[in-house]
Amino acid sequence: MIAGPQPLVQNPPIPGGNNAIVAGQNVQIHANNSLWIDVNMAKPGIPTAMFSWSLPGGETVNAGETSGRLQVHNNGTLVITNIGLGDEGDYEVTASNSDGSDSITSTVIVLSYRWNTVWSDCSATCGPPGTQSASIFCINVKSGGTVVDDSNCQHLNRPELPSPRPCVPDNSPCPEPPMIFKADPLVQQYQGFTIDAGQNVSIHQGQSLRVNARIVGGVPDPSIKWTLPDGSKLGPGETSNGVRVTPNGALLINDVRRSDDGTYTVTATNSQGTDTASTTLKVLRE
């Protein structure tokens, strides 16, 4: 007959040693250790009992046999070396002779923690290289890497914290506000003319005028709007009363009239900011 102690869950034994319990006791043990489960016979039995162990996967190992990292001694003691998560479960020992048999079970819970080094995101998301810094956490391997209190890894050597390392962003341009190139203001008289936003011009009726909006930079790409002398607004591809804005943001008046007199303001806007430039048009009489 096997003497069975009251089942209990032992505290995790000191890793690296041979940790022993008695059949009928339950144990928590850290992975990569060895475990001994002794069989305490209340009565040895006559004739002498033979021992066999049923493993969590259903395999049976008899006294004197070895199965991988598991061995059963002739006295019934079960030894598991380099224990792992796959060894978790119920271990039942049976002692039997010609007069009968008796069994008792121990439950083995395998704890698996390790130190894990995690690198931060790159300090630079665009433009020149940045740096990454490291942090070290204790994780529970069984739960898929959940971060746990460092005390669970105190039996393991904590790795040294690596020094920060350089990192390269994805080479995308950094966000920046748009800027409109502003030419020096001038007043000129021409039969037809192309100027840059920020310049002023005098032109005869019936002639044409193109005012370029030269956007310098701007990430993400800015939107462009022209405000006309009457307060109306035009975007690229839009037309109003003979005034048209091209797809690239230039202002076109193909047949200048006296009513076109006034100030035309272009505005470039993105999430980082806004810039404006104004051109004053004076329409000359014939």
Give your account of this protein's structure.
The protein is built from no helices and 29 strands. With 286 residues, it is mainly β. The protein has 3 domains: 103 residues, Immunoglobulins (Immunoglobulin-like), CATH 2.60.40; 55 residues; 106 residues, Immunoglobulins (Immunoglobulin-like). Strands 1-3-11-10-5-6 form a 6-stranded mixed β-sheet, with no helix packed on it. Strands 18-20-29-28-23-24 form a 6-stranded mixed β-sheet, with no helix packed on it. The protein starts with 8 loop residues before the first strand and ends with a strand.
Keywords:
3 domains, 286 residues, Immunoglobulin-like, rod-shaped, mainly beta, 6-stranded mixed beta sheet
Number of strands: 29
Low-confidence stretches: 6-11
Q: How widely separated are the two ends?
A: 125 Å
Strand order of the largest sheet: 1-3-11-10-5-6
* SS summary, helix count: 0
Question: How big is the Rg?
Answer: 42 Å
Strand content: over 45%
- Please give the largest β-sheet: 6 strands, mixed
The CATH homology group name of the largest domain: Immunoglobulins
Instruction: Name the average pLDDT.
Output: 87
Count of discrete domains? 3
Percent of residues in helices: under 10%
Q: H/E series, N to C?
A: EEEEEEEEEEEEEEEEEEEEEEEEEEEEE
By helix and strand content, what is the structural category? mainly beta
Named at the architecture level, the CATH assignment of the largest domain is Sandwich
CATH class of the largest domain: Mainly Beta
> CATH fold name of the largest domain, please?
Immunoglobulin-like
| Shape assignment | rod-shaped
